[in-house]
Description:
The protein has 21 helices and 26 strands. By secondary structure, the chain is an alpha+beta fold.
Amino acid sequence: xxxxxxxxxxxxxxxxxxxxxxxxxxxxxxxxxxxxxxxxxxxxxxxxxxxxxxxxxxxxxxxxxxxxxxxxxxxxxxxxxxxxxxxxxxxxxxxxxxxxxxxxxxxxxxxxxxxxxxxxxxxxxxxxxxxxxxxxxxxxxxxxxxxxxxxxxxxxxxxxxxxxxxxxxxxxxxxxxxxxxxxxxxxxxxxxxxxxxxxxxxxxxxxxxxxxxxxxxxxxxxxxxxxxxxxxxxxxxxxxxxxxxxxxxxxxxxxxxxxxxxxxxxxxxxxxxxxxxxxxxxxxxxxxxxxxxxxxxxxxxxxxxxxxxxxxxxxxxxxxxxxxxxxxxxxxxxxxxxxxxxxxxxxxxxxxxxxxxxxxxxxxxxxxxxxxxxxxxxxxxxxxxxxxxxxxxxxxxxxxxxxxxxxxxxxxxxxxxxxxxxxxxxxxxxxxxxxxxxxxxxxxxxxxxxxxxxxxxxxxxxxxxxxxxxxxxxxxxxxxxxxxxxxxxxxxxxxxxxxxxxxxxxxxxxxxxxxxxxxxxxxxxxxxxxxxxxxxxxxxxxxxxxxxxxxxxxxxxxxxxxxxxxxxxxxxxxxxxxxxxxxxxxxxxxxxxxxxxxxxxxxxxxxxxxxxxxxxxxxxxxxxxxxxxxxxxxxxxxxxxxxxxxxxxxxxxxxxxxxxxxxxxxxxxxxxxxxxxxxxxxxxxxxxxxxxxxxxxx
Length: 698
């Protein structure tokens, strides 16, 4: 663990441009990395915070095939959505690049060529899965089958999303192609492999010994399990038609494997930043006084803690990550987030539906962050955290301070006054013991919050920030300046001065977590330059006497039940749509001849009467006009329809079904029904006007 580094290089996992950003991405990677970067900048540190769109690999090809467009159209569409979402949400990247950029193609190709020329790869002809119908080799995500570890029947060729195991496509039981549905065959192909087994000793010493005490247990445990399970050579090339060409002879038609190319995107993004800013990128990646930190989700731990470090070690000139504080997964309303199933809260939609409430989502995701275990996002919890914490604690304190300052002093910060009837003998004398106690406690918070942030405990750090607001609320509640003003206005000047120091501290301390709130609060208090945390920890006066503040504005607005219900209804609609899309249809019955069908006499009819069958929950007794007669039909639809709502209903009737006695009532036919996407019964109806009862259906 590097102490007192000269500079920091912070990377956030490159998002795939096969869909927009959702709250799982934010909670796992982008909010914590942004908090950390903003915090370091407030400490005056030299920070480079980079990211970029991951635009190669199978995920892009799959999306392009699904949407019937080219991969380039897919990446351009989603890069635009993602880039704007991050900007509007306030993620403070120093550079956001694209892996389709020339600088990245050149950097990744050069990296591969360096390792190739040093003889670090194994060149090998292997048997790979091949879809003969599609006439192409199947990359990992183009294969699904049964996971050999847990038996999940829809595991991908690179990973089982149920148990989290990393797989090879050839490991799958009963594999099939996602392109054609065909069972693939094995076919020979040449590829290049990074021999991870050569780096076993290095990885054990660097991680299992060197980072045993400072890496998160969930990260360390997964890495240890992988190393202890035995490392094997890992392919760095793929048979694909989309990606970066393998830059050696004999590799025509082959591309760099996306997990070789993608992490190099951090380096190429840094180069892009340096070229634009007129700086040297190399110290941020090659100087031993630089602290490199990767922010990722748990599904990327192996790649950032084993494969990428092995690549860097093989190249020889790069530093290794000091920490990889990966988070676990965030679920949504009890179910796993899924881009393909649209089970998500999309960032770009949130920003439209909750305008100017970026910090509410940042707060909710941080206070419920899946730092050591999977957590669940619910809209009710989101609403409660806003209304009961941001509004009732933080916002309430600031509002009271600003309103009272404007009411009593026309917005001028008052000077502390000595106790009533006494002369001042120095500023500290003007404070009561309680005032000094509160101001002393306030000075301690920067160090407390810093300690949590430095250990990547952002949820804990946010809790300490809210304790500053609680400190202010308690101070006002204990002192009751609105009562004291009547008899001791001098004392109220000191009380409001102390409360305003807490408010000023909050404008600085909240910036990493709630940047939009920090800007708004600084504007209300008319603080023109940021107050650094060192000043908060050392000075009792953060906003001076005589300074004029602005008028009160609500920092946070209460979120009403109606707004939350809209989001719940939206998710319910998604659930219904998924049921319809994933519904397993009844298989076709055995073939019949036309004469078999012609034996059925199907007629149009109208239900004239309906009543419940006594002592039967499912049965209704119907009187149906078939056009030939009015007959009794017993139908098992009572759990779906009341008698009143179906009288007058036009229906399709099978009239030549042999009569059957049901609970003493002879049923002389059958009403035709089907199910809708929600599983509810629906009449198979002749809806067209002018269709008479008794008409034959053929």
